[in-house]
Design brief:
192 residues, alpha/beta, Rossmann fold, 5-stranded mixed barrel, 8 strands
Length: 192
């Protein structure tokens, strides 16, 4: 462990390929995540993968499945403050590596709210073809774009819908989280 400032834990060590690897939590929401990524960039970060959880928007998704975000929609304030309406497209090579290990690939929405207070926004997202919603990836991708680092996104379906419905728990959550981490690490190692 090299960090626990702001209650966010970070670990650094050597990966299987002999190269340095850092795993850093970034808290909930775009503002917190953006700060962490900016500071990691200041320390020399060149490529990163956001691994985390999401709520399903598509009926095709099942709890525990992995989603590779091949593009993102920023319905959050942080990504819009950073880059406006610019396209949010992750690094192609890293995305292809993640997609090969994921159950689904497609559009993911980043929002500021975990508990949506009405069906209007989620209905629009579903109509746009979005598979899932989460809270940090668009902000992180905006920072990555501004800082010229390679960045991709892999998510685990932890909630059956946006902030509601069934949730992944217990051993199933543990197994899905381990699969998520291993897939992210494999993509980082292969993209180096």
């Amino acid at each position: 462990m090299f960090n626990h400032n702001r209650g966010l834990w970070g670990y650094s060590g050597i990966a299987e390929d002999g190269e340095p690897l850092t795993i850093m939590s970034h808290g909930i929401g775009g503002p917190s995540a953006a700060i962490v990524l900016e500071e990691l960039c200041d320390l020399g970060l060149e490529r990163a993968i956001r691994i985390g959880s999401c709520g399903a928007l598509s009926e095709a998704l099942e709890l525990g499945q992995l989603i590779c975000a091949d593009h993102l929609s920023g319905a959050d304030g942080t990504s819009r403050a950073l880059i406006g309406e610019a396209a949010l497209i992750p690094d192609r090579q890293m995305t292809e590596l993640l997609a090969a290990q994921a159950d689904h690939s497609g559009l993911v929405v980043s929002a500021d709210l975990f508990y949506e207070r009405g069906p209007e926004r989620t209905a629009r997202w579903k109509a746009s073809g979005a598979l899932a919603v989460e809270m940090e990836a668009a902000a992180l991708l905006a920072v990555a774009k501004l800082r010229s680092i390679r960045f991709a996104v892999l998510l685990m379906v932890s909630d059956a819908s946006a902030g509601a419905g069934a949730r992944l728990e217990g051993i199933a959550l543990e197994r899905a989280t381990e699969r998520l981490g291993r897939a992210g690490l494999a993509a980082l190692l292969a993209s180096g």
